[in-house]
Structures are given as structure tokens and as C-alpha cells.
């Protein structure tokens, strides 16, 4: 068999992929179908990057090791694609938020508004009310705070967003871009689905299972616990790099800032909080949210429970990067790195770390599919990507 494989893959170019998260795995999978020979390098001991999930030996619960990941998309191609690798079980993310000793529904919806203000508004009344409490003098919100004051007013901003955001990003919301808050809708009905996407679900066997299946191909060799050195690039005709873009260039333009997360794990008997995720919006509670992982797999039954208390802080050199900070300083640095990257021959920078953007899983997958398409089209046309 080995000889047959060798013969079959010998004629095609050699592809190196750095990072076995969704970006790298999707590209590896797509190119392997076209008989490219692929080496994928992963510095950690497992694939799937920060989406990695594994069963806890003590409780049997499937744990989202690097924090909650809920799959949602409105992209037909991506939804159809992920289902090739696992069955997606019905799941709707319904988040609760605790603020000043009371529990509310998030994102801000008609129940949140009515309970918070002690009203019984219908959708039209709520919309008028929200317009009346929003700061209409802010016509073009630039910062997170301006966006919040404009669309939800001071009381809701201070209850749900100010404390949480200060903890999550380590700075005042007036220093953050409005785009971060635009991730969250405000609804004038009782729809409490956190995501406005057309499709949503949880992989029955976890995200790591999906990535392992993507990489399970005779043309793909996975190298775990292996840091990629730039000198290794010479072995490949093309490289797809999903590590941090600034690391590739030895931080020549300075380090790009990230937030990292710490998780405090606790095990309990029974149901700890009755919901997958509860946000803690008060600034004097040190964690941002608590996730109870068995509720991410509601089709399973577990007597015991595992929870994560989540804390956010600045990402130091040896920490795992999570959220790119993307303030003015980082954007200037990023521009310089993007220029350097475009001058790199036969190397494509992909994914959250390779492009330094706040990407959800479905966007990562959609972009990786596009990159693979473009690469194959360039190859077919005899062009360089
Ligand atoms: N946010 C907040 N309060 C909440 C939830 C979110 O202030 O209870 C803000 C916070 O700044 C966060 C942003 O809204 O970074 C986007 O929230 P999302 O739930 O999309 O964050 P993620 O789940 O990606 O961490």
C-alpha cells in the first residue's frame, strides 16, 4: 500500500500547513482530495485548536476545553460541509445574565426590557421606548460605549455591558470599537436565541472528532507536539500558516495584543446552574461567565457536572491567544504585517491568528474553503497564489 500511495502522491506538490485548527484542517482536507501531499504541524498535543473538546474522565461530560464553542451559520455551504464529518444535534444557545442580584435573558430582548423596567410592552411599544432612552445625539457611534448608549441607553448599558466588557477586554468600553457590541442584536420580541443564524447545532461527538475526521486521509500526515520553524518551509511548494502572523515575522513590528482566558474548573453533583452559559455582568464579580458543559450536550445524561469559571486577562508571551484586541495601535501594526505577508512567496496566512481577526468557527471554515478554492484555481491556471 505504501508504495501505491507514494506513487500516487509523488507527482503533486508538497503542502505544509501550520496549525491543526479549523482553518488548517479544512484546507488539508480539500487539498488531500486533489492528491496533494500534506504535512500539518501542530504545536499542541491535540488537533482542533481552541475548539478542542474531550470527555472528562471523572464526570463523563464532553468538555469544551478552551471555553464554549457553539456552532451556528447562515452559510449553506458551511452547514452542509460540517455535517459530512459528524451529526449535528439540535442546540439553541440561550444565555442568561446576572446583574445586581437579578437574572435576565440575553441578548437584550422583549423579556429583558419588560423585566428590567417592570413593563408589559408589546414589540412596538418596546421599540418606541428604547428609542426614547437611547442617546439620539450620538449619530455615528464609534466606540463600544457610544454604540451602547445610542441603542440601549445608560441603564441597560451599565447593567449588562459596562462591567462585563471592562472585565472581558481589560479596558473601559469608551476605548473599544463599536464593532464588538454590534455582534449582539437587540430584539423587540421574545426570541432569546443568542445567535441570529439560520442554522445552529452541536457536533454529537465533539469538535475534535470533526477535525480528526477531516485529517483522516492517507495524503495527510499530522505532526502533533511539533513547532514549525521557518527553515522547514523550504521542504514545501506552498505553505498555509494559521499561527500568529507577528510570530512568523519574529515580532519585527511589535507584538500584536491578545486577551487570553483562564478557566477555574469545578465538579458538582446534579445541575449546577440549569443553563449552559450564565454571564456575570457586575464588575465586582471577577469572572465573566460560568459555563456548565453537560448542557452543551443536552442529549446526554450525566449525574455529575463540570463547570468553568471564565476569567479574561492580557495575553503574555507564553499564554494561549484568544481574542485579538485590534485597537488603533494593533491595526497599524497589522497593516505592516499584512504588507510583509503579501511579499512572502508561496505562503498564505489564514484563520484567526494568521489574519488577526475575531472569527467565529463558521467564518473560519467559509474562508478556509475559499482559500482552498482559490489555490486550486491558481494551480489549474498555472499561476502563483
Ligand atoms: N458583552 C457584554 N455583556 C454580556 C455579553 C457580551 O458586555 O453579557 C460584550 C462583551 O464586550 C463581548 C461582546 O459583547 O466581548 C461580544 O459578546 P459575545 O457573546 O459575542 O462574545 P464571545 O462569546 O465571542 O466571547
Uncertain runs are 1-7
Radius of gyration: 23 Å
CATH H-level superfamily title of the domain at 2-54 and 77-87 and 205-252 and 326-380: NAD(P)-binding Rossmann-like Domain
Q: Estimate percent helicity.
A: 25-40%
Based on the coordinates given, report the CATH architecture of the domain at 2-54 and 77-87 and 205-252 and 326-380: 3-Layer(aba) Sandwich
Strand order of the largest sheet: 8-7-13-14-15-12-16
Distance between the termini: 33 Å
Q: Helices and strands: which structural class?
A: alpha/beta
Count up the helices: 13
Number of beta-strand segments: 17
Q: CATH topology of the domain at 2-54 and 77-87 and 205-252 and 326-380, what is it called? A: Rossmann fold
Beta-strand content estimate = 15-25%
Fill in the keyword field for this structure:
binds uridine-5'-diphosphate, Rossmann fold, 385 residues, 34% helix, 13 helices
What would a concise description of this structure say?
With about 375 residues, the protein is α/β, with parallel strands linked by helices. It has helices spanning about 1-10, 20-35, 75-80, 110-115, 125-135, 145-150, 155-170, 180, 205-215, 245-250, 330-345, 350-355, 360-380; strands spanning about 15-20, 35-40, 55, 60-65, 70-75, 90, 95-100, 100-105, 200-205, 220-225, 240, 260-270, 275-280, 290, 305-315, 325, 345-350.
Amino acid at each position: 500500500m505504501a508504495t501505491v500511495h507514494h506513487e500516487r502522491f509523488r507527482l503533486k506538490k508538497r503542502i505544509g500547513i501550520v496549525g491543526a485548527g479549523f482553518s488548517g484542517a479544512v484546507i488539508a482536507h480539500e487539498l488531500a482530495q486533489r492528491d496533494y501531499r500534506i504535512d500539518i504541524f501542530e504545536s499542541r498535543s491535540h488537533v482542533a485548536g481552541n475548539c478542542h473538546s474531550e470527555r472528562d474522565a471523572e464526570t463523563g461530560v464532553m468538555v469544551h476545553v478552551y471555553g464554549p464553542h457553539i456552532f451556528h451559520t447562515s452559510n449553506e455551504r458551511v452547514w452542509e460541509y460540517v455535517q459530512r464529518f459528524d451529526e449535528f444535534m439540535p442546540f439553541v444557545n440561550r444565555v442568561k445574565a446576572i446583574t445586581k442580584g437579578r437574572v435576565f435573558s440575553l441578548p437584550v430582548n422583549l423579556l429583558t426590557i419588560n423585566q428590567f423596567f417592570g413593563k408589559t410592552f408589546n414589540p412596538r411599544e418596546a421599540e418606541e421606548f428604547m428609542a426614547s432612552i437611547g442617546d439620539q445625539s450620538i449619530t455615528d457611534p464609534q466606540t463600544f460605549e457610544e454604540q451602547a448608549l445610542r441603542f440601549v441607553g445608560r441603564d441597560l448599558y451599565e447593567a449588562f455591558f459596562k462591567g462585563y466588557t471592562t472585565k472581558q477586554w481589560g479596558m473601559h468600553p469608551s476605548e473599544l470599537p463599536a464593532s464588538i457590541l454590534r455582534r449582539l442584536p437587540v430584539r423587540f420580541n421574545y426570541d432569546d436565541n443568542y445567535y441570529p443564524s439560520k442554522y445552529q447545532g452541536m457536533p454529537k461527538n465533539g469538535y475534535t472528532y470533526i477535525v480528526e475526521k477531516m485529517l483522516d486521509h492517507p495524503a495527510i500526515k499530522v505532526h502533533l507536539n511539533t513547532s514549525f520553524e521557518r527553515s522547514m518551509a523550504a521542504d514545501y511548494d506552498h505553505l498555509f500558516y494559521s499561527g500568529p502572523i507577528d510570530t512568523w515575522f519574529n515580532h519585527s513590528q511589535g507584538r500584536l495584543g491578545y486577551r487570553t482566558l483562564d478557566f477555574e474548573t469545578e465538579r458538582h453533583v446534579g445541575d449546577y446552574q440549569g443553563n449552559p452559559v450564565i454571564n456575570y455582568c457586575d464588575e465586582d464579580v471577577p469572572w465573566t461567565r460560568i459555563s456548565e458543559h453537560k448542557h452543551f450536550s443536552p442529549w446526554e445524561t450525566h449525574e455529575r457536572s463540570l463547570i468553568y469559571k471564565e476569567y479574561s486577562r492580557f495575553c503574555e508571551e507564553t499564554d494561549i491567544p484568544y481574542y485579538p484586541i485590534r485597537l488603533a495601535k494593533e491595526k497599524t501594526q497589522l497593516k505592516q504585517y499584512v504588507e510583509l505577508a503579501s511579499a512572502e512567496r508561496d505562503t498564505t496566512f489564514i484563520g484567526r491568528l494568521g489574519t488577526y481577526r475575531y472569527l467565529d468557527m463558521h467564518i473560519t471554515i467559509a474562508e478556509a474553503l475559499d482559500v482552498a478554492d482559490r489555490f486550486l484555481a491558481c494551480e489549474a491556471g498555472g499561476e502563483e497564489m
